[in-house]
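Take a record.
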Amino acid sequence: MATFAGYFGSAPWVEAGLQAGAGHNLDHHRLSRALHLRQLAFAWECAARATVAGDYDDRLTGQERRT
């Protein structure tokens, strides 16, 4: 895990983990809902951080840019 996460050294944060009991393609596994919810939460967190920093895409947040 540490080696994999190390490839993203310039990222603001990295989360890596193994999903126990899942097959080789988690998208088609009974645990896929949990994976997809984590992916959506990650995207929303990225949008929220960008909003706070003032560097965001209006299409993602639905908010107007402050100038």
About this structure: DSSP finds three helices and no strands in the chain. The helical segments are 2-6, 32-53, 58-61.
